[in-house]
Prior knowledge:
Layout: E1 7-10, H1 20-37, H2 39-44, H3 47-60, H4 68-82, H5 90-101, H6 110-120, E2 123-127, H7 133-136, E3 144-147, H8 148-151, H9 158-168, E4 175-179, H10 182-191, E5 195-199, E6 215-217, H11 220-229, H12 233-236
Parallel strand pairs: 1-2, 1-4, 2-3, 4-5, 5-6
Keywords: Hydrolase
Protein name: HAD family hydrolase
GO molecular function: hydrolase activity
Amino acid sequence: MSFPIRAITLDLDDTLWPFAPIGVRIEQALDAFLREHSPQTADMFPVDRMRELRERVFADNAHLMHDLSALRQLTIQQALRDSGGDVGLVDAAFDVFYAERNRVEYYPDSLAALERIAARVPVAGLTNGNADLERVGIGHLFAFNLGAREHGAAKPDASIFHAACSRLGCEHGDVLHVGDHIEMDVAGAARAGLRSCWINREGRRWEHPELRPDLEFDTLTALADWLDTVPTIADRS
Length: 237
């Protein structure tokens, strides 16, 4: 399919890099911190039990699902309180979490493809996560990064897509949203009136009952190749 676009909004986790390895390192780093600074907490909440606590805190605070940093802090605070640890350690423990959260390993194609895409059209990060693109080291490739915490609502809520379009100075239909998640990214973007691109690295079947993506690729390189073949709206103005 060929159509012109003016800008791209781009999901981060599981689109530019896999989140699962980050999650494992976060758990290990936080456990090591607690074993050094609050061993009673580490004993009561080893990795598996800390994961269970995190899931429970997330479920009990669904109103904060747009703010994953706050939910992580609440989880650490709860673990310290329940174990008789020093709740004053929350900030230091969160710093350990956040350092690991921003240590990413890109998919093999991602960085070079992102550089090609950003040279062609403005790119804005659009994420429910809490990665810091400056700390990750790729902030210079983005016009901005709009997170759910900053916006106050998470994908697939249409308002976060519309806010990104407004900051880009673009009509909704002139923006292509790119991401891995069928509901959060593709369906959310489509309902909000944006063009949509599904990055399907694992060869999954499309299983949405109502909507289909405008584009589907198995790498960001394929998206960059497609973008090189179509005129952008800026090219045509």
